[in-house]
Specification:
alpha/beta; five-stranded mixed sheet
């Protein structure tokens, strides 16, 4: 089997996930890209910030919106190491992100291809193109290792 190098945005998201793990947070990282340039970065930090909304996707979306001076991130891509939850999928829709790339599926908490399937609801006014699996092995192993250490 030929292994292709991961696209740079997913490599950056995985590095942010590693930073989260080192800080004792669930290892999830995300980046927002527009025209090939990273304009938003985020890693999980709900424990250290005492903020249940401090998911990697939310942090990256906030930084990107600030960089653009606009809450609409049209034409942007979000690269994240784990399938987004319902809260993050809602934020992705509200931000009008064009493409979502996620590495590992999340059958328990994911809400894109599992669970709530937020983008499939008629009330969802914007649906990004969704691509999954790039970096899945690396992201899944990082998550397994993180939780294995805590058991």
């Amino acid at each position: 089997m030929t292994r292709w190098p991961l696209p740079d945005p997913m490599q950056q998201a995985l590095a942010l996930a590693q930073e989260a793990a080192e800080a004792g947070e669930v290892p999830i990282g995300a980046v927002v890209v527009r025209d090939g340039e990273v304009i938003g970065r985020g890693r999980n930090h709900p424990r250290e910030s005492h903020d249940p909304t401090a998911h990697a996707e939310i942090a990256a979306i906030r930084e990107a919106a600030s960089a653009l001076g606009n809450e609409r991130l049209e034409g942007c891509e979000l690269w994240v190491t784990l399938e987004p939850c319902a809260m993050c999928a809602g934020a992705i829709s509200h931000a009008r992100i064009a493409k979502l790339y996620y590495a590992a599926p999340d059958p328990k908490g994911g809400a894109v291809d599992h669970g709530a399937r937020v983008f499939e609801h008629p009330q969802c006014l914007h649906r990004p193109e969704v691509y999954s699996g790039m970096g899945e092995e690396q992201a899944a192993e990082m998550l397994r290792g993180f939780f294995r250490e805590r058991r």
